[in-house]
Design brief:
Three copies of one chain form a homotrimer. Chain A has 318 residues and is of the alpha/beta class. Chain A folds into two domains: 156 residues, Aspartate/ornithine carbamoyltransferase (Rossmann fold, 3-Layer(aba) Sandwich); 149 residues, Aspartate/ornithine carbamoyltransferase (Rossmann fold), CATH 3.40.50. Helices cover 36% and strands 14% of the residues of chain A. In chain A, the strands form three sheets. Chain A has a five-stranded parallel beta sheet with strand order 9-8-7-10-11. Chain A has a four-stranded parallel beta sheet with strand order 2-1-5-6, sandwiched between helices. In chain A, strands 3-4 form a two-stranded parallel sheet. In chain A, strand 10, helix 10 and strand 11 form a beta-alpha-beta unit. The radius of gyration of chain A is 20 Å and the shape is globular. The interface between A and B is medium-sized, with 30 and 26 residues.
């Protein structure tokens, strides 16, 4: 594997899952693989889980790790040609990225949607520039439109907890005070569509995800109907995708908050969320603290998904 | 040893000191003990000595280290249940802490007294939540009421420099422009009371420390009298502890500043301070630069105290 | 080698270059040399290339690395004696520096000219205090008057690309919106003067560098005349050095911007710059993207120059 930005990069998911469980049994089995190899993690946005889990995964593989925090806006890169750079942008992307590539073997990039231009966000401007100019394998630590390390960890978790071969998985929108990127729901949909699970998406009208991510999933606007018989409930808030209201919050209806009543219509479903989660907006205390909540093992699997991805990339550069 | 928050966690101090001197002779003797083990250092407050010395100690033991800086207030954790989290707190402590625990083997936490609520400070709210919810061994890198890694380093230093079996050690308050937590003097008193040294505390009226820390120490309000015949002078400023003026500065009297006149009544005492120190507030230039000042070797012993603690915890999780 | 602050510390440059090329062939040849040795990198100014390349070099040698960011002004150290420290300076340099030295084996320091006092800048106050008080080998990661790791990387790059034994190297000033330190041009001049290259400096009147750095170089105020027949063009902006306008920008004339017309009079010269570079101020897009631009391999050689320096220091402390 060279780059990792979406589900297709991983190839056969059954093979990838097998590898994940093998690593989970012995995290240090491949500690020699990353010897004298350096991971550079670049954060354009803040991070807790992704930072710690990816660094841990790299160290499990014996890698050296360097972390670069680029505060949003603090490091303004020029991307155009012909501009007289006498303003606040002190470096051109055509110099900055290859230089960073020259000091490491693998690059991880976190760069969220900015909600300034839907086109820029959905073209993955930043991530693609790293792929194009760094000369190194690049993987997404959550980009504008996808969060594949999270989705892979979600898949691992579902495989660990599922009780039937083809569980019913429901992705439900939930309210949040701030507009959040669609990266997590897009990506989750992409990964679920790549399995043979029964997959349903539910959200208020106006919150439709991009068609390329919805793909062959069933969309059900009636949340309770969607949740009926679910084996896994995956809650997440996201901002509007459509052109008219792109990046806006147009609904804070707490009737969508996942509570005991919602869970009661499921098949004693497990509750999942990528974290951090706003309690009593996304989900009630009772549900997230209850015996069916698997948000902590789900987060713990971030170390495993990152380790499979790094292992694959390392194997590709040996 | 599971957790390390106070002197009792270390058991027999003679054994711990023996271990400290063994490590000091060869810091890399146990470099295999921490192999494939990860320390997560979490700072709610800024740090120089603690950060560097603890990280160095962990690396001496062959550990991997991850550092997380949580600016005071920047990462607001909700601690109550039932709250609708639609404000500035983006995560609940019941999710945040176990997730951090899932990516490491040992957690170090720095969280100072905030002087907002005496009860919250003296109940060690933050530190105890990590112990309760992280699922990992936790050690204090200075908490609200104690700084045990500092006190252990102080003890090691006194043992190295003492010329009599039972030296006289005097903890003296000194003025400072800002209100400082009682963690260092509390903890120092706790450790000195656990030895058979002669231990005296001196401070202006109104600066009494909590009775559980003073314990069987002699309190002497006349500073010069307290210092008479001292073998070690340990200076430190702290804010008022009593309920009425908790967390306030009510005295900036520079007559308490340790100078040559104060040192003259001692038994040619060594001068100690945990650093950073405000010169000519806490102590004069002459005294801190003089031949009896041992503040630098005292700071250097922070690496040793941290290494004993990490070694003990590692042995407990093998 | 004990300290590294200028070209003389490296001794015979031919030997140093031989070592550089040996390391470049196998970066991990000396991975055992830094075992159980710790590098502390201290940044008073922000850094991208220096931070990553130096850390990478240290890891290539098997060292442990700790990074300390000291935001300019955030950590105010008292340097005078006798001052009553009741203001905003919380620590004296006489305590802070030896303590940092006690937790590591080698110290790297970045501390730029502040343009507040020419005397302070040119006396290298900060760097020299680390040398004097830390008790450890110290190397410059760009100080007030020199950037020797950059200049060494520049020399390595010229040796790799030169087609004649004694190439003509031209250092040309170029415009920039902000006043920049003279560290890079000073240092480059110092290193070029230590070779047997033909070395010419060109800049507008008023931008003369300090005589000790210019030394026996030829200064030519006519930029086009200076560039005639050049094998290497090294562009850099710097602020005025003379007493009257020290640290100021007195010229933004874009006639000095290196463009195709300038390059046309050279001997098909290679273009060099230390980066980050302001395009169309320092150099046009065409030139920096052209086949003769070697700015990326020049930056990549920062890892090699740092590794030679660290290797030499490590050998000195074995």
């Amino acid at each position: 594997m060279r780059h990792f930005t979406n589900v297709n990069d991983l190839g056969d998911l059954k093979v990838a899952l097998h590898e994940a469980f093998e690593i989970k049994k012995d995290r240090f089995k491949f500690v020699e693989l990353g010897r004298n190899k350096t991971l550079l993690m670049i954060f354009f946005n803040s991070s807790l889980r992704t930072r710690l889990s990816t660094q841990k995964a790299a160290m499990n593989l014996g890698m050296n790790v360097m972390v670069l925090d680029i505060n949003q806006g603090a490091w303004k890169l020029e991307t155009e040609r012909g501009v007289i750079m006498d303003g606040d942008k002190s470096e051109h992307i055509l110099e900055a990225i290859p230089v960073m590539g020259s000091y490491c073997d693998i690059i991880g990039v976190r760069s969220f949607a900015r909600f300034e231009s839907k086109q820029d966000d959905y073209n993955e401007l930043i991530l693609n520039q790293f792929i194009k100019y760094s000369g190194r394998p690049v993987f997404s630590m959550e980009a504008a439109t996808r969060h594949p390390l999270q989705s892979f960890a979600d898949l691992i978790t579902i495989e660990e907890y599922k009780k039937t071969e083809r569980p019913k998985v429901v992705l439900t929108w939930a309210p949040h005070p701030r507009p959040l990127p669609q990266a997590v729901p897009n990506s989750f949909a992409e990964w679920m569509n790549a399995t043979d699970y029964e997959f349903v998406i539910t959200h208020p009208k106006g919150y439709e995800l991009a068609p390329e991510f919805v793909s062959n999933a069933r969309v059900e606007y009636d949340q309770m109907k969607a949740l009926e018989g679910a084996d896994f409930v995956y809650a997440k808030s996201w901002a509007v995708y459509n052109d008219k209201n792109y990046g806006k919050v147009q609904n804070k209806d707490r009737a969508w908050t996942v509570d005991a009543e919602h869970m009661a219509v499921t098949n004693n479903a497990y509750f999942m969320h990528c974290l951090p989660v706003r309690r009593n907006m996304i989900v009630t205390d009772d549900v997230i603290e209850g015996p069916q909540s698997i948000v902590i093992p789900e987060a713990a699997n971030r170390e495993i998904s990152a380790q499979v991805v790094l292992k694959r990339i390392l194997e590709g550069i040996q």
